Amino acid sequence: MKQIKYYLFMAKYYLECIFNILFSPFFYYWKKIIPVDKINTPIHKLNNNFKIVTLVGDYYQMGYQYGSLMKDDILYNYELFGNFLNCLESEHMKRIPFILKDKDIYKSLDKLYNRCEPYIDKNIKQFIKGMSKSTGIKERKIWNYNLYLSLMGSHCILYSKKISKKLLHLRTMDYIHDNYKHNLIVFKNENFIPYSSFYFTGLIFILTGINKNKVILDEVYYDEYLSKSLYKSNPYYFKFHKILANSNFKEEAIKILKEEPRDGNLHIGVSDGNKNESVFLKYCRKFCDYDLILKDNPIFSFPPDEKSKYEKLLSQKNYSVEEIIRLLSSMRTGEVHSFLYYDNYIYVSITSNYIQSYNNDFYKIDLDYLLS
Fold first, then answer.
1. Which residues are within 8 A (CB) of 10 and not within 5 positions of it... i.e. 6 or more apart?
2. How many CA atoms lie within 13 A of 286 on its CB side?
3. CA distances for 331 relative to 61, 68, 173, 216, 359, angstroms
4. Pairing state between β 43-47 and 195-200
5. Buried-state track 133-143, b at ≥16 Cβ within 10 A, e below 16
6. What share of the chain is helix, strand, coil (3-state, %, to 5)?
7. 285: which residues sit within 8 A by CB, 6+ positions away?
8. Phi, psi for residue 232 in degrees, rounded to 5
9. Cα separation of 182 and 174, whole Å?
10. Distance between CA atoms of residues 357 and 49, nearest Å
């Protein structure tokens, strides 16, 4: 039965991909960059699947606010995500390390939680506690969904370059589903630097984040296989909260990263919009080191089997922001969402329906305004 669910799920996914590719040429030139001029309320709706959410207070208070404000969207995403885990469970179980294997994916996630929990920042625990209180969702369920990505790689890219001596930083993500709801979450407290994260509603880890000082953090898997991790550490995507809340420039971010090394096969992007600098650090078997440093030529991290799709992005040095945004649709990679920083603006997009899967409109937001 599980194999049947898997094949039906994947058949639907590939049919959607074919549909999107066929329609992509017709919508390529309709892609829009939409300025966001006013954000006057805690929830600012950009479209039906994408909202900016502003949270204020300590981490428990922000978690409670987030659950209260986004409860319906969180429940919607969790239902989709639960279906995703159930339908693809047979494939997931093949990739789970032996030390975490159990009779099903949820038991394996419980094991992962028990190994990671002593190392996770108390602020993240308080946020999830507040979110659980306001949504009525059990804490363990929230933890399971938020830890899932530590077990599985995802199709993502990192790309940094300079245009007119100013930093351009791009991260995209594709994850076999195009109907998830998304948030750009703003975290504000008088005791830390305001920062923002961009991901699926209900998942509070940071795969892409930026703070008021224009320090940008993101992570991707740069190998086809996950390393033989012991999974006894604080996942970086939780630690990014602490780093963004306390870093004035990229060197401070890197220092905090190195305080608590862990194993894995990640590329961590650390960029600084004020200094127009970017580095990618590699993490493998409990050490971190500089892998790629932005100088004259672009630096990038692409999945090995996808690199050929990005040759257009790599072959030219003079693309503008607008041209890069248009190129994303012609690459046929089906990005679920994209984040781009340039010249104190962030450009964010998410897939809001099937036809748009390769042709997402981008929202342009002034970083100073967003985090003021």
1. none
2. 6
3. 42, 38, 13, 24, 11
4. unpaired
5. ebbebeeeebb
6. 45, 25, 30
7. 227, 263
8. -115, 75
9. 13
10. 13
Question: Vertex 260, ends 183 and 121: CA angle to 5°?
Answer: 45
Tell me the C-alpha distance between 121 and 131, whole Å: 16
Residue 58 exposed, middle or buried by CB count within 10 Å (0-12, 13-18, 19+): middle
The rounded distance, in Å, linking the Cα atoms of 53 and 73 is: 12
285-322 pLDDT, tens digit per residue, is 555 667 788 988 888 887 766 677 676 666 666 778 88
Tens of pLDDT, residue by residue over 44-75, are 999 888 999 999 999 999 999 999 999 999 99
In angstroms, rounded to a whole number, what is the distance separating the alpha carbons of residues 261 and 279? 17
d(CA 333, CA 173): 9
- Distance (Å) of CA 209 to CA 4, 167, 227, 274, 295: 38, 16, 24, 15, 22
H or E stretch including 197? Answer: strand 195-200
Compute CA distances 113 → 139, 142, 247, whole Å: 11, 11, 27
Question: Judging by DSSP bridges, how do beta strands 266-272 and 277-283 pair with one another?
Answer: antiparallel
Residues present in the chain in total: 372
How is 275-342 classified by DSSP, letter by letter?
Answer: TTEEEEEEE-SS-EEEEEE-SSS-EEE--GGGGGGGHHHHH-S---HHHHHHHHHHTT---SEEEEEE
Q: Give 211's strand partners.
A: 195
For the chain, 372 residues long, give each residue's pLDDT as a single digit of tens: 666 766 676 677 667 666 666 666 666 566 688 999 889 899 999 988 899 999 999 999 999 999 999 999 999 999 988 888 887 777 777 777 778 888 888 998 999 899 889 989 999 999 999 999 999 999 999 999 998 877 766 667 888 999 999 999 999 887 666 578 999 999 999 999 999 999 899 999 998 999 999 999 998 875 544 455 566 777 888 999 999 999 999 999 998 888 776 666 678 899 999 999 999 987 655 556 677 889 888 888 877 666 776 766 666 667 788 888 877 766 655 557 889 999 999 999 887 665 555 557 889 999 999 998
